[in-house]
Amino acid sequence: MRTITWLGAAAALALGLSACSSGGAGVGTTGGSIKGKTISFVPGVSGDSFYITMQCGIQAEAAKSGLKVDMQAPQQFDASLQTPIVNGVIAKKPAGMLIAPTDAKAMVPPLLRAKQAGIKIGLVDTKLAQDGLAESSVSTDNRAGGAAAADALAKLIGQKGKVLVIAFKAGASTSDDRQHGFEEQIKKYPNIKYLGAQVNDNSPAKATSIVTATLAANPDLTGVFATNQFAAEGAATGLRNAGKQDKVKVVGFDAGPVQVQQLQRGDVQALIAQQPYQIGVQAVDQLVASLTGRKPNAEIGTTTTTITKDVLSSENGRQAVYKTSC
């Protein structure tokens, strides 16, 4: 689930890409030239800096092979909104499609129809519950990202105390993997008590309620891992309402403008940044391999970077921050 801040920037970018795309490039291009063909990019949600950065990587890498890029995105991270977009892509018959499935199970039927139509499919960011539909899958190793969050939070709280996870959506592979990676890693800290995970359904208000209720039952709470922007936003509000913002540490996920502002304000003390540009580049490379008769890598995992205020001012920190335009 992604932020819908920066909607205008993404809409403008999508419009620009659509203007230079011809659509209907045709399928069944395995072997031979792919120059002039079109690939479609269907991110999880419109206007998110993570997906904008990924789109920049896709666009740059596709241009090297003479491919055109068409982008359409749902307004919310919701399979019921993404499915008709996929159906529209099928009707256009591009050579390939890169997609971040919004639900591991619900997106299987529409993507099965896309495959049956001869469209090469590459997964980015999120995954499917069924193997064999996609040529490749390129995404952050979210379990490793969750483990990095556990290490960062443990360091912030002196390796002792009580910690909570706020997961943004049950069933989304990214949310589940971040949670599970955190849970496995936090076991390595014997003086930290894990209070479990609760789901906020991408609602800041629900995350606030979760933190408020947790503090009522556990006033000695010391840390929160918020698995996305909205979870972090709600957690920060709950801590401020309780006057605990200086006592409870928060680790967030992603490094878009909103997340960086949260870090700079002190709402979170660390961020786990992904590499969306590289995900886009590698996803195109694997799709091109498939389209030209070569064997793509079935699965590629990218790493994360832990950013604190100190790291943010460094070159590595600045490079890890997501883009709002290409």
What does this structure look like?
- By secondary structure, this protein is of the alpha/beta class.
- It is 44% helix and 18% strand.
- It is built from twelve helices and twelve strands.
- A six-stranded parallel beta sheet has the order 2-1-3-4-5-11, sandwiched between helices. A six-stranded mixed beta sheet has the order 7-6-8-9-10-12, with helices on both faces.
- Helix 2 runs parallel beside helix 10 (276-291), helix 5 packs across helix 6 and helix 7 (204-217) packs across helix 8.
- The radius of gyration is 20 Å and the shape is elongated.
- Mean pLDDT is 89; it is low at 1-31.
Spatial order of the strands forming the largest sheet: 2-1-3-4-5-11
Total strands: 12
Largest sheet: 6 strands, parallel
Number of helices: 12
Strand content: 15-25%
The level-1 CATH class of the largest domain: Alpha Beta
What is the ordering of alpha helices and beta strands? Answer: HEHEHEHEEHEHEHEHEHEHEEHH
- CA-to-CA gap between the ends? 22 Å
Helix content: 40-55%
Low-confidence stretches: 1-31
Gyration radius over CA: 20 Å
